[in-house]
Amino acid sequence: MSASPPIDPISRAVIQHRLSAIVEEMGEAMLRTAYSQIINASRDFSMGLVDRNCRLIAQADHIPVHVGALPWAVRAVEDRFGDDVADGDVIVLNDPYTGGSHLPDVTIFVPIFAGGERCLWSVVRAHMGDIGGATHGAYNPEATEIWQEGLRIPPLKLSEAGKPRTDVLDMILMNVRFPNEFRGDMDAMIGAAHLGEKSLRRLYSEFSPAVVGGAIEEILDGAERRARDIVQTWPDGTYKGVAYLDDDGRERRDVAVRASVTISGSQIGVDLSASDPQSNSFVNSPHANTQAAVAMAFAYLIDADIPKNDGVFRLLDVTLKRGTIVHPDEGAPVTMSTTHPANEIVEAIVRALQAACPDRCMGGWSRRFRISITGDNPRNGRKFIWHLFHARPGGGASSQGDGWSTCGEWHSVGGIKFGSVEVSEARFPLHFGRHEFRPDSGGDGMFRGGLGAALDLQIEVPAYAHTAGDGIRHGAAGINGGQDGKPHDYRLVSNGDEVALATKQFGLQISSGSTLRIRSGGGGGWGDPAERMPEARALDAKRGFVQT
Fold first, then answer.
1. What are the tens digits of pLDDT across the range 251-264?
2. pTM as predicted
3. Can you tell me the distance from the alpha carbon of 154 to that of 157, in angstroms, rounded to the nearest whole number?
């Protein structure tokens, strides 16, 4: 491609907003065409535009832990295919050791050609309801190796020059438990990626490839400049933070992620090599997922209106040690990685930097505690799988105010939603007896952590479930003197008996009419509780947010 001509500010701004609008439109298409509850209700998907140099160009406000890993996924595709990519190709992967994050997150890539050259990739990542393996939903607490977690897909072509490879698709569908749902979701992903392709072709035709390319360079450089302007105000030095998983589901407790963060001018070095050794459980984080967690931690500390693209992440130098929980040897199980230890990686970095930029560091966001339920659905006479996304935990407080209640965890920061209660009851054999804020769950502080939720969920049929999560011992961290949020408390009430649920539990039998009594954790507080305004405490009491 020829050298970029000078780009006037108006054209640059138009192109920047068009790129953002394209990924947002891709997301809307995905939401409206996907089949599964986990995507069309809970929105567990992300969109991105990445160039052939593996640089993140644009993203929408979806799931940060997804988007931060997309450049590494494109790198795997580029390494595999090189110049063997044609107009009309569709590529798929999910392998965590080849640019993926965990097996349920499947990624679709469509190449974008302009001016006779391949310029960009239209990329869609979505969490599938099932990916095969030893148990439904892919979260296998008993897995000791990745092959027990599901089907591994290296970069493969689903279509070549516009011709679908039905043999590859048939192989994938044969290895999942809900092939119709999987096929519908994959079609939605491909459609969203092609929509991005169509919109980008229009952009390239309205401007020229040289102008669009030049604008992209200026957009990335501008984001870098703004990020460096912020970081260079932070004191140089090395800062340390640590965050803990409750356990690894085996014999280990208080599994540590240790971050050593060095600021030198406007560059940041993040060293996680002192983190604990890898586990024989599914709480390991593969390379791309760890890189995504580091990137999103930094993204949370800079101004919200700075585009979160490759320009911003040029400031980061990441050091990992092979064989640790944040960089395991290939073959280790990793399905929990996008939540744990991803959340702990973010929290360790934020805790480290509270000494350097206290007004930008927020209290911890609560942990993820997932339940996947399967059984026979009398609504339609078919098997069902339902993933718990209701009862979202609370977000952390910040120097700007109280944390958001029931909005999720560090890895999603509100991007994952809980679906309609009424729709869930109509689609699945479930009854929501209670779904409301959990009083007293947010950490106290000058600004209070967001509240978790209280959910009483009756399961109307015999079912089988497993849990995958963390946070019944360690609550979300308070920052700058704020108090920790309250941990989770999940219980199964059946025939008058009440049993506390572990966070990594396999083979949970649920009898018809049983109730899951779920109390999700709150976010961490920010600042000294003694400095909270009396008016704020009075309002909390009036609203029932604080009852003790």
1. 899 999 999 999 99
2. 0.95
3. 10
